[in-house]
């Protein structure tokens, strides 16, 4: 599957030294526990919950609008425990997705609208046509 160009307003994004582009309209809770490994794009209205546990996102990933990334949890008799969440390289998360309880290391994994429909499709992330490339 070929990804089209994703155009954006440069003033609406913060670019990090490692080439990550994070929308100013996104919410990063517990940013000290969030690692974006480079050239990852987090679009507007996304929420990444690093305040619950460590969140690690690989290189060349795209998190589209209104998606939520939160660590997995388990209920115990004495409370709730949260566990680290790891997303590998070349992962494309579509709009309006909720990603929870993952530890994916597959290359080019594609999430579309829900984690339960996690069809692993070729995201063609290596395309040289993306306008959001670094």
Automatic annotation (TrEMBL):
Classification lineage: Eukaryota, Metazoa, Chordata, Craniata, Vertebrata
Localization: Cytoplasm, Cytoskeleton
GO terms for cellular component: cytoskeleton
Organism of origin: Homo sapiens (Human)
CDD domains associated with the record: LbH_Dynactin_5 (cd03359)
SUPFAM superfamilies xref list: Trimeric LpxA-like enzymes
Entry annotated with the keyword Zinc: no
Record keywords, A-Z: Cytoplasm, Cytoskeleton
Protein name per UniProt: Dynactin subunit 5
Family indicated by similarity: Belongs to the dynactin subunits 5/6 family. Dynactin subunit 5 subfamily.
Pfam families in UniProt: DCTN5
């Amino acid at each position: 599957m070929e990804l089209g160009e994703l155009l954006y307003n440069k003033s609406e994004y913060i670019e990090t030294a490692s080439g990550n582009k994070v929308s100013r309209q996104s919410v990063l809770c517990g940013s000290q526990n969030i690692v974006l490994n480079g050239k990852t794009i987090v679009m507007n209205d996304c929420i990444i919950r690093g305040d619950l546990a460590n969140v690690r996102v690989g290189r060349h990933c795209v998190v589209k609008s209104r998606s939520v990334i939160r660590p997995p949890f388990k209920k115990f008799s004495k409370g709730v425990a949260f566990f680290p969440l790891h997303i590998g390289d070349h992962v494309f998360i579509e709009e309006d997705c909720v990603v929870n309880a993952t530890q994916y290391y597959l290359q080019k994994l594609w999430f579309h609208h829900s984690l339960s429909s996690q069809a692993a499709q070729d995201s063609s992330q290596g395309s040289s046509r993306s306008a959001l490339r670094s």
